[in-house]
Amino acid sequence: MKKILTLLMLFPLMSACSTEAQENHNIELPQADASALSVLEHHHSITIHQFSLILKEYLKNYHSSSSSNRLYLKGMADLYLAQNNLFIPNMYEEYNIGNLSKEEQNDIQELYKNCRAFADLISKSLDKNVPISADNKTIKELIQLADDIKSQNPYEDGKTDLIVKMNQLIKKIMNDNR
To answer: Which residues are the signal sequence here (predicted)?
Structure first.
């Protein structure tokens, strides 16, 4: 009889604990999405900031006669190329976090691909000792776009108009250098 009474007393405690665990699990899902969006925002900001620093260094040191300045720029470009900037945005697309359209996701991924191609162009131009055929004004415009874009979070607000503009400018420079 004591066993049955003990079991009956423990049953409400066990069922109460299991209900609470289910409620906590339901609360964590939006927090996980928020954390994933935070990671995406950080990745976006860092990736575009690094690209902006490479462009600034290019303007400052490309025509420098100092080989150490050119090596520094080459190292920056090569380090940028060594990173896989598409890994985290591809996770966004795979798990469908947030509310971007397919076109907006493609614009963002295209931006990372174009930045990578441009960093490769800088690296190769340094290897060949041939400047990129883009004037300083165009590079400064690209830097300004990068600085404006890095502070945006396109994963939350869906604003990709500057990203599209930057993609077009990079493609134009890349086409002029073929």
So the answer is: 1-21
Structure token digits, residue 101: 């359209």
Q: What is the amino acid identity at position 165?
A: K
Rounded to whole angstroms, how far apart are CA atoms 56 and 136?
10
Backbone angles phi, psi at 97, to 5 degrees: -90, 140
Concatenate the DSSP letters of all residues of 105-140 into one string: HHHHHHHHHHHHHHHHHHHHHHHHT---S--HHHHH
**Cα 28 from chain centroid (whole Å):** 24
From residue 174, how far is each of 41, 63, 111, 134, 164 by CA, in Å?
27, 20, 13, 9, 15
Tell me the pLDDT tens digit for each residue of 59-101: 998 877 788 889 999 999 999 999 988 887 777 666 666 677 8
